[in-house]
Amino acid sequence: MTFIADAATDTLPKLLRRNMQKFPRQPGMREKEGGIWQTYTWRDCYTHVGDFARGLAAAGFKRGDKLSVLGDNRARLYWAQLAALSLGGMSVPLYQDSIASELAFVLDHAEVSVVVAEDQEQVDKVLSIADKLPNLRLVIYEDPRGLSAYDQPILKSFAEVEAMGRDFAEHNPGYFERELDKGGASDVAAIAYTSGTTGRSKGALLSHANMIATSEIFQKIEHLARGDNWLCYLPMGWVGDMTYSLGTSMVSGATCNCPESPETVQRDLRELGPNMFLAPPRIWETMLTGLQVKAADASWLKRNVYRHFRELAERRELLKADGKPIPAWTRFGYRLGEIFVYGPVRDQLGLRNARACLTGGAPLGADTFRFFRSFGINLKQVYGSTEACGLVALQGDNEADPNTVGRTVPDTQVRIAEQGEVLVKGPGVFLGYYKQEEATRDALTEDGWLRTGDAGLFDPRGHLAIIDRAKDVGKLTDGTPFAPQFIENKLKFSPFIREAVAFGDQRPFVAAMIAIDMNTVGKWAEDGSLPYTSYMDLSRKPEVARLIIAEVEKINATLPDVTKVRRVVLLSKELDADDAEITRTRKVRRGFVAEKYAPVIRALYDGANEAQLIMEITFEDGRKSQLTSTMLVHDVAPLEPAVSGRMAA
User: Fold this and answer.
1) Cβ atoms within 10 A of the Cβ of 174, count?
2) pTM
3) Where would I find the H helices in 118-264?
């Protein structure tokens, strides 16, 4: 096993202390505020963590207590987690865009006593549910703007708690250091709540040993080193941020960099030029859409230069993937493309300095994957789960393949069960679910293997390929295997399609619900002088339907006849995590969607031309309302006689 339980470095706060002692003046964290990057050395970070931990102790926080952070990525929210861990507590990070009811469930279930919130918006959400949280004793805010008139006794500022800590230190010398030394590898570091694709989230108990061992494995594979820059912008509630931002930074000494806001991430990414970059598929899809839109809006000359070199890069990438020689003319053209297109695009994206870029959390479409690889971005797929600290398999630099997730990482074992489910055993596998013993028994085999719930297989090279969620893999009525994610990722390659949900299991053909991309379709409509008033109005335009059908037909051309998408319906609103249609990590909650959109699915397969749906929508403040809409169903490709007959039957 990679992780060795050295008592001096067997917890994340002890690693922080080590970093402070070994390289105190090196940057540990940066945070952009007011357009300026503020740098905190490892000594600064350790001092803030110590002051805040002592302040928590003065407020009654003790070993076994839980602290939650709620907000965008901020240095003080990371310090708050480390402070709680220093005292033997546990971190329960939350998704910043969660609505109040979601927060209430997690905070109550985890018995959280302290919440550290970023700003007034997050404080208001917590205070609105405070009466439902019997264990809540303290709410701490990082940004004081708008909170000066609040007089709730449980409310304190981050600065106040640090001041309490400095006062506490005068009367309790050595307390912080003694508590830090009491911590051990087997202590629970975090309760990471799963995305909840099949129902309520479950709290995965991750120990310091889990997180440190996983971070050490990642560091050794990717050679992450002290001084390397990592952009911390992913949701703090996601296990990927816990492992790859906080954990790996403590292990390797790499610098965590927090952008100013979610709206400035792309600009801050360009300014920073990180050495490594991790993004879920939605980010890569959004980047690609932005590039496609910019190319379409460019002058005739620039548009054609871009198209020429893009096609050349894609041909070269396919030859490389197939192991075929690359002609001299193609090699020469690619060098020219590096000057005119590929290098400038990487600069525009902020990825020129990135030795490697990772995508994970969900499958990325092959077309999108190859596009970035062809432009000289070392994009690789990483596979993991919350229950395995987010790392099970990772592609090598020269083994990137859109159809696999790479080889199993060191010290980790993977086997495929008889039903095709991926089973995992290794140092990152969690301790169990918090207060859910039955769910823990279901998740682990008798001999300690984690059931991931994913269907997969090993290819002849020994690379792991993930087909889909095991419960989602099915068959058409003629026996053809059907994996909805494969179809959906194909569809989302189009810049005009933001989300897609494919159906086909036990059905005669494949059909899909499509949510248009409001930005790109809206701009397309404006360029064509097509007026519209709202998302619903735009999605019902016949011109938009023809646009989307043409996009689906392009995608169908790359699919076998039996799995071509035959009918589509354009949704009248985007799929929304607030409405429980997708998770906070943008995974489709298929069971819920199938139930909620049952009339639409019936229309897709009954041959109807429209479907009426009455559904409940949730606003950001938690208010609910009903929306009634009529959605039009469109034929994409002519149905074969046998298929038509089955549909009619």
Assistant:
1) 9
2) 0.87
3) 120-128, 158-171, 175-182, 208-222, 239-241, 248-252
Model confidence over 543-567: pLDDT tens digits? 999 999 999 999 999 888 899 999 9
Strands 36-41 and 66-70 turn out to be unpaired
- Residue 116 sits at the vertex; the CA angle it makes with 111 and 120, to the nearest 5 degrees, is 120
The DSSP symbol for 409 reads P
* Cα–Cα distance for residue pair 622/639, rounded to 1 Å: 43
Tokens 């980047």 belong to 287
Cβ-contact 28, 44 below 8 angstroms: yes
**Contact of 228 with 254, CB cutoff 8 Å:** yes
Query: What is the chain's Cα-based Rg?
Result: 25
* 473-648 CATH pick, 2.30.30.110, 1.25.40.10, 3.40.50.410, 3.30.300.30: 3.30.300.30
Asked if 584 and 195 touch (Cβ cutoff 8 Å), the reply is yes
Contact 420, 413 (CB under 8 A): no
Is residue 24 a contact partner of residue 50, using CB atoms and an 8 Å limit? no
Which residue type, as a one-letter code, is found at position 419?
Q
Confidence check: pLDDT of 619 > 80:
no
CA distance 290 to 535: 19
Rounded CA-CA distance 51/80 in Å is 10
CA-CA distance, 428 to 405, in Å (whole number)? 18
- CATH superfamily, region 281-352+354-471: ANL, N-terminal domain (3.40.50.12780)
pLDDT digits (tens, 9 = 90+) for 258-267: 999 988 999 9
First to last CA, the chain: 58
Coil, helix or strand at residue 543:
helix
Q: Over range 303-324, report the average pLDDT.
A: 92
User: By the 8 A CB rule, do 487 and 512 touch?
Assistant: yes
